[in-house]
Design goal:
The complex is a heterodimer of chains A (about 120) and B (about 110). Chain A has strands at about 5, 10, 20-25, 35-40, 45-50, 60, 70-75, 80-85, 90-100, 110-115, 120. Chain A is mainly beta. Chain B has about 110 residues and is mainly beta. The chains are: A mainly beta (about 120), B mainly beta (about 110). The interface between A and B is medium-sized, with 22 and 24 residues.
């Protein structure tokens, strides 16, 4: 069974850093693109970042470019999101999501499955 | 970025009803449109991909249609477990963008 388990969320002050982890099981992250998607409290979904399965190419939303870094450890089958210079508006539940079929974010892809999420709160 | 607009933002319906949610893209996205269902406290689940491709395990009362800029998600014979929030998402280009969501409540 394919499963994703996020961890690493918590309370951090503005300007601080946090590293999220997404432990995958039931498949190899080297074969699929992986994504982070966030949801602010009571709000909708916002794609944050992706990393391809092959070369590990990365992509970011403009709102986090230069502050967040996505990476992976294939040996641990885990994807990470390093979040620096955090802002109040980064407060959200962060979900990890697997690309259903593709090793890179191709036109027509979709996210399946998703993890249960980890809550990040940025507040003084 | 491609803007995705859903309507309505919220909807009240009864068990057994048929409901339709619409999603409009700010530019043509062919059929590169996915629908997700999210229940409170849970991560989203993929319901329909490529505008009309019902995912394995999803009930046949769910259907999707559309192409270009206008899409619909229809749920016939609503069941208690269908009351949730639904999101559309375009997979035409990056960044992948979502609609604002449609919350479906029990009347």
């Amino acid at each position: 069974e394919v499963q994703l388990l996020e961890s690493g969320g918590g309370l951090v002050q503005p300007g601080g850093s946090l590293r999220l982890s997404c432990a995958a099981s039931g498949f190899s992250i080297s074969n699929f693109a992986m994504n982070w998607v966030r949801q602010a409290p009571g709000k909708g979904l916002e794609w944050v970042s992706s990393i391809s399965g092959g070369a590990g190419s990365t992509d970011y939303a403009d709102s986090v470019e230069g502050r967040f870094t996505i990476s992976r450890d294939v040996s641990r089958n885990t994807v990470y999101l390093q979040m620096n210079s955090l802002r109040v508006e980064d407060s959200a539940i962060y979900y990890c999501a697997k690309d259903q079929f593709y090793s890179s974010p191709s036109r027509g892809n979709c996210f399946d499955p998703w993890g249960q999420g980890t809550l990040v709160t940025v507040s003084s | 970025d491609i803007q995705m607009t859903q309507s309505p933002s919220s909807l009240s319906a009864s068990v057994g009803d048929r409901v339709t949610i619409t999603c409009r893209a700010s530019q043509s996205i062919s059929n590169f449109l996915n629908w997700y269902q999210q229940k409170p406290g849970k991560g989203p689940t993929l319901l329909i991909s490529a505008a009309s491709n019902l995912q394995s395990g999803a009930p046949s009362r769910f259907s999707g249609s559309g192409s270009g800029t206008d899409f619909t998600l229809t749920i016939s014979n609503l069941q208690p477990e269908d009351f949730a929030t639904y999101y559309c998402q375009q997979s035409y280009n990056s960044p992948r963008t979502f609609g604002q969501g449609t919350r479906l409540d029990i009347k």
